[in-house]
Design brief:
Shape: globular
Largest sheet: 9 strands, mixed
Structural class: alpha/beta
CATH architecture of the largest domain: 3-Layer(aba) Sandwich
Helix content: 25-40%
Radius of gyration: 24 Å
CATH topology of the largest domain: UDP-N-acetylmuramoyl-L-alanine:D-glutamate ligase
CATH superfamily of the largest domain: Mur-like, catalytic domain
Strand order of the largest sheet: 7-8-6-9-10-11-12-13-14
Number of domains: 3
Length: 461
Amino acid sequence: MRIRLDIPLKLSEIKDAICAEGNITEDTVSHIVTDSRECFSGDLFIALCGRDDNGEHYVRDAALKGAYIITTQSIDDALTVSDTLLALLELAKYYKSKLKKLKYTVAITGSVGKTTTKEFLKIICDGKYKTHATRGNENNLLGVPLTILCADADTEILILEMGMNHIGEISLLSRCAAPDISVITNIGTAHIGILKSRDNIAKAKLEIKDGMKGGRLILPYGEELLYEQERAHYFSSKSKDADIYIIYKEGNVTVFDKDGYYTAPFKPTGEHNLECLCAAVLAAEDADISKDIIARQISLISCENTRQTIIPLNKFYILADYYNASYESVRAALDQLLSLEGYTVKSALLGTVLELGDMSEEIHIKIGRYAAKKNLNNLYLYGEYAKSIREGAIDAGYPENKIFINENRDDPRRTALQISRNGTEGEIILFKASNAVRLGKVLEELKSIIHKNVKGERQDG
C-alpha cells in the first residue's frame, strides 16, 4: 500500500515521533509505503513483518528506488527501530496530533456489528463534520494506523473500527488513536477458541478505554460483562431504561432519549441493524450532533450501508455475508434474511465458523437449532462442521430431506450443484461463514453453472 500524507512530515520529526536511531536528512516525506513494489524516490518505506511475507527482505529494493527506510536493521541512512509495527502506530499517533481541526475521535469495537455501526455513524456525522472513517474492514494493527495517516488535514471527526484476535491488540490501537468516544457493540463468542471465555473477550474489548483521557464509553444495555463502567452511556432496541432506546415500525425508527423522542425513515431491517443504529446514534449525540441532523441523516442510510449485499443471479438472489462469522453474527444474518420483504422463498448456506476451539461442535449444533426455527426452504451446509449443524437442525425438527451437506471445503462445486438443482425461482439464499471458508468460491461455481445452463437453453432454443 502507498498512501499520501495530506500533512507532509520531516524525517527529523518522524525520527523523534517513533524514537528511532540513525542519521537522516531534513527532507520531507509526503508518501508512506508498506509494499516495496510501490515505492518511488522520496517515499518512506516501512519494513513490516506480515503474515505471509517480511518487509525486511525488501529494504534494499526500496532503498535502490530512492526511498527512505524504517527498519529493524542497522543500515546507513535508515531509521532503525526495535519494532516496525509499533513504529507505525507511534507515527500514526503523532500524525493525528497534527490534525488541528479534529474535534472527536470515535473508536468502535465488538464481536458483531463493528462495520455496520461505523458505516451508520459515518453517514450521520457527514451531516455536520468533515468525516474520515475506516475503509471496508481495515481494522487491525496495520489498518487502523494507516487509516489515521490517510486523514485529510481538515478532518473534523475520525471514526476508527478496531478488531482483534488476541489480548492486548485493542489496547495498542486505543493508545494509538486516543479516542474521545469509544463504542463496544456487544460481547459475543467470536475468537472464543483463542480467548477461551466471554469474560476474556469482554476484557479484551474493554482495552478500548486504555487510550482514553476522559470521554464517553458507549455500551449495550443489559450486558452483565460490561456493567459498572465509568463514564458509560447505554443503548438498546429492547429496553426503555437505556440512555438511547430505538424502536422500528413500518419503515421508520423512533429514537427515545433523556430529552424526548424523534422519528426518521430507516430502510434497513432486522434487529441487528437496529442495534447498530442505536450505538451510532448515541455516539453521534455524544459528538454534539443535533437531533434534527441525526434524523435527516438516518433517512439517507440504505441497505447498501450494511455488511450484507444482495446479488441477483438468474433465478436466485444471493444474500452474501461471509466476511466473518460468530454464533451471534450467524443468528443476526438469519434474522436479517427472515426480515427481508419481497422474497417468498428463503434458504441458507451455512459454513464453518472458525476460532471456536473446544466449543466448535457445541456452537455449530446451536447454529443448526437456531436455523431450524426459521422455516427455511432448504439448508445447505458446508465445511468440516456441516454434520454438527445438521444434527442441531434435525434435533430442532427441521426436515432431513431439506438438508444438503458438503464437508469438503476443497469442493465448492458440489455445493453449487446442490443449490442449482434444488433451488426455486425467485429464491433468496443467505451465504454465511467465516471469511477463510471462502464461500465466494461457491458463488463463483454457481455463477458458472447458471451461465452454462442459460447458454445451453439458448442454444437448444
